Amino acid sequence: MRLLHTSDWHLGRSFHRVGMLGAQADFIGHLVATVREYAVDAVVVSGDVYDRAVPPLAAVELFDDALHRLAGLGVPTVMISGNHDSARRLGVGAGLIGRAGIHLRTDPAASGTPVMLSDAHGEVAFYGLPYLEPALVKDEFEVEKAGHEAVLAAAMDRVRADLAARPRGTRSVVLAHAFVTGGAPSDSERDITVGGVAAVPAGVFDGVDYVALGHLHGCQTLTERVRYSGSPLPYSFSEADHRKSMWLVDLDADGTVTAERLDCPVPRALARIRGTLEELLADPALARHREAWVEATLTDPVRPADPMARLTERFPHTLSLVFAPERAPDDPSVSYARRLAGRDDQQIAEDFVAHVRGTGPDEHERAVLRDTVDAVRAAEAVNEVAR
User: Minimal CA–CA distance to 73: which of 25, 34, 126?
Assistant: First the structure.
């Protein structure tokens, strides 16, 4: 069976004030053409279809168009909700839409109930594990403490139990939306840390033939059977070195996996340039970035006059301007933002305690801070569902 694995469309998202709806529509057209060209048997979409719980009307219309075009191909599609989606909204009408071959899996309780598809070699069970917010699904999966690994492990126990009851030789595909250990994040994914831990081990998914992951925006191979497709378009300058693509996966009769990367069309290249303003305006080696979307980091010790206007004369598509004066690390003018760069909420809170009190928190206090951060995240997740 030949699968096309994609994820993280983020319909409705912009890139530094530049609307991406046209590029997203181009991607949908490319997806449909790819299904035709490569005789794909099934499409899998591993979450974050939309960029937010209540997407703009234009994004909903594009999604509707995508559904109609995929259904018109007569090729089954299996799709799960991600942490950016409203599972309830995305899943509206799933039963009816399923009759057209578009299988929406947004209910955590149905994680162990597969979509069954078949080819000349027999049946393939597709298990859709939507994004599992630990605080919201803890009771459903009967785990003692809310955590990503615990709820995903419980969901996978249901998958393996269902698979064990099926005829020998039934092949299996799992769609999941999670941060799996070994994956490389970018700046454009929403933080899903719980209990100080965001990642889950790849071993959680043992026992199935292929795991189609979503959430991280870079295309990645964790194992031959566990892969991220990444987002089809860039959504932050941290993705400047990404090759945007989808996985074309062949699942043989015995469950052997072979995979090929198929490139996606992107509207413009991304470029991150760094130096003093005069260096960036004069360096001939930077001429190749004239038509790229540019993030310029200025290292001038004093902020120059009209930097954006001057940069856009040479680089018309400059979208982001960052000031990072080259100073000694102990210079008091080093910005607070730079000192916090790369630190998560838990670390920032612990550093604040140490700054105010003179000593850092003990183990009990760290646990209190962690529980508080998790409670805030859980409240935000509940609010997203309510919206």
Answer: 34
| CA proximity to 24, closest of 219, 266, 230 | 266
Which tokens is 84 given? 């950016």
Give the C-alpha distances (Å, rounded to integers) separating 65 from 29, 126, 164. Answer: 10, 24, 38
Give, in order, the Cα–Cα distances in Å from 212 to each of 26, 47, 190, 227: 23, 10, 19, 6
CA atoms of 235 and 187, how far apart (whole Å): 8
- Average pLDDT estimate for 245-263: 97
Tens-place pLDDT, residues 312-330? 999 999 999 999 997 655 5
Burial 171-186 (b: 16+ CB within 10 A, else e): bbbbbbbbbbeebeeb
| Bigger pLDDT: 336 vs 358 | 358
Q: Rounded distance, CA 318 to CA 17, Å?
A: 11
In whole angstroms, give the CA distance from residue 287 to residue 291: 9
**C-alpha closest to that of 157 among 179, 142, 177, 178:** 142
Residues, the chain, total?
387
Question: What span, in angstroms and rounded, lies between the C-alpha atoms of 73 and 63?
Answer: 16
Domains and CATH numbers, the chain: 2-263 (3.60.21.10), 270-326 (no CATH)
CB 114 within 8 A of CB 165: no
Confidence label for 381 from pLDDT (cuts 50, 70 and 90): low
| Nearest residue to 212 (alpha-carbon basis) of 176, 160, 158, 263 | 176
- Which DSSP symbol is given to 91? T
Please check whether residue 359 is in contact with residue 345, taking contact to mean a CB–CB distance below 8 angstroms. no
Task: Return the number of other C-beta atoms located less than 10 Å from residue 352's C-beta.
Answer: 12
Distance separating alpha carbons of residues 23 and 38, to the nearest angstrom: 22
Check: CB of residue 34 under 8 Å from CB of residue 75.
Answer: no
For 32-89, how does the pLDDT look when each residue is reduced to its tens digit (9 = 90+)? 999 999 999 999 999 999 999 999 999 999 999 999 999 999 999 999 999 999 999 9
CB 311 within 8 A of CB 337: no
Q: Walk across the sheet containing 42-46 and list its strands.
A: 102-105, 77-80, 42-46, 2-6, 245-251, 257-263
For residues 331 and 3, which has the higher predicted lDDT (pLDDT)?
3
